[in-house]
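Appendix B. Extra example for self-study. Work through it before the problem class; the solution is given directly after the inputs so you can check yourself.
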Amino acid sequence: MPTIRDVARLARVSVPTVSGVLNGTRNVSKKTSLRVRTAIVALDYHPDQVARSLRSRRTQTIGFVIPDVTNPFFTDVLRGVEDTARQNGYSVILCNSNEDPVVERKRLAMLYSRRVDGVLIAPTDFRSVTERPLRRDFPLVYIDRIPPGFSGAAVVTDNLGAAYEATRYLISLGHRRLAIITGRLNISSGRDRLEGFRRALQEANLPLAEEHLRQGDFGLESGYLQTLELMGLKNPPTAIFSCNNKMTLGLMRALGELRIACPEQVSVFGFDDFEWAANFSPRLSTIAQPTYELGRLAMEMLIRRIQNTRPEGKDKDKDQDKDDKDVDQQQVITLKNELKPRDSTARFTQ
Amino acid sequence: MPTIRDVARLARVSVPTVSGVLNGTRNVSKKTSLRVRTAIVALDYHPDQVARSLRSRRTQTIGFVIPDVTNPFFTDVLRGVEDTARQNGYSVILCNSNEDPVVERKRLAMLYSRRVDGVLIAPTDFRSVTERPLRRDFPLVYIDRIPPGFSGAAVVTDNLGAAYEATRYLISLGHRRLAIITGRLNISSGRDRLEGFRRALQEANLPLAEEHLRQGDFGLESGYLQTLELMGLKNPPTAIFSCNNKMTLGLMRALGELRIACPEQVSVFGFDDFEWAANFSPRLSTIAQPTYELGRLAMEMLIRRIQNTRPEGKDKDKDQDKDDKDVDQQQVITLKNELKPRDSTARFTQ
DNA sequence: TTGAAAGCGCTACCAC
DNA sequence: GTGGTAGCGCTTTCAA
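Solution. Structure tokens for the complete assembly:
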């Protein structure tokens, strides 16, 4: 495995000169530059990123912590993150927290040990992230979910608004008995979606029966079980709003097993869109989040924050970074969602 | 950011002693050890993996190169890879090749520069991988797909056998006019699935009409377009075998648009199982690959290969590693697939 | 049981 | 323009 010294030797120049050629960080004569390049090719030399990172205090690596790799929402976001990272010379270390705060904390500690330049996170729990040492140690951008009373960098979508619109849509179809299967209520996306639903009901002067408010956890199983209970009620709802893709899947399975026709007997509106939602029957009515954009914007914001944080030199006064002109510091970007009413919702006729 | 020296200073010991305590690689008296541990906690010290990697020639990182992060097949595999990697102290850098050989080569070069300990790859192209310098530079385990005439480390599934069985199943239902939408035929999975289909037909003395052999590329669009053509034929097939999940999705979309009922008018058997396949109507008949296992076994094989490759010291005779007792060196593990006949296939009645 | 010193491959800061 | 030298944070001899 050739090193920079081998290249220097072969090109009969000094090591710093080779480094200069590699990084374009030094004035080098045409002739020398050519000799160096030739040597690089001849030896098939590839600079050691590890050594480079140690020296420069930059790993060109970011961590991306998500609760579930198998959820298409997150993999779509991941694609946006990965593409944008690559384009800017960053690699992505993927961490699956499995919706477990303990695992999440471990992953963050590991990312810290690896000296990643920054972290993108869809958190499961806010203690993981507000506690030391994680808060100070690298630029962090929240994605998809934010802590209550949050002020910091984040990219999310308008969960409340989209849930509100979808619910209004159901109401406009004539539905009066609406049920919701919520997500986890300890994170913003779960809470906001419930809140949007509530508001639309309130505005229409519709009651939300206790029994029609079912708490799920974003997992398939919870959607399945809650639907079973919901449809077993004496007064089953005529429309169900499901707060994420996996739960919608469980919901549809339950409906299938109960032989309840959708949308004839019950309408379904689900948060999250995905390839199959539009290609199977019934074609699902969904809220499409701009997943790729979410990933792209979050990554761009993270890169900006990384660039505004000089790699820790000899630390002088602590917190000297406070006055960074980093506009992103306190920025929360909220993206619009798109309603995709399709065939799983129908007009309610008594 | 505290370093090992800060810890040493605070604990009033030498740097190597701290290192010894951290790695359990040195006999240290109880008392000193305790002092060191206390200092570590007090300073909230986290060893710098970058420096450690530079010194030890191990990054505890592997690269995972896949053609499509949004394909649930690969993300399910990814979960197996990630879990197993973590359990063994490895991190995963994810690389999306987008089925593009050029991108793939770039990613491999980058992984090399980052000095990953090894690579797992579902290749799009075999030149990427057989050419220098990639072949020699890190342990490589193929996953899901192997080059023609391959001898090396790989974990794949029995594509040929599963396609054969699925086709026989369709035949047993009375179908005589079967069509196939193949995957990319320059990789083993695509080829083997076609071959299995062919064999079953041959054995049953059924012809494969030229027009019923449609070449797809594993993408949704190709499944969609080929189905459109297929069902527009004068003699449309009564059963279609689709060679992966995305194409099956396109297939179902085409059927929906053409208002062709499945399974009443045409039976569909698809390669790859996924959550939604069993939860929507029609519940899809699929071939379920052991995705998690695939990832787990491949990662385990890679770890074994990494451990049998001493980190390049001063290279003496080249190829001295040849005599490694690495049984995996030439090993190809083939996992069984499972047929899941469901509701998208029905008996053919004239 | 412990410490001093060397060095992994690179970049940055000097001189010239 | 170019080269010498120091040093990033750690592990690994080698002595004591």
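Self-check: Chain B has three domains: 4-47, 57-156+291-333, 159-290. If your reasoning did not lead you there, revisit section 3.
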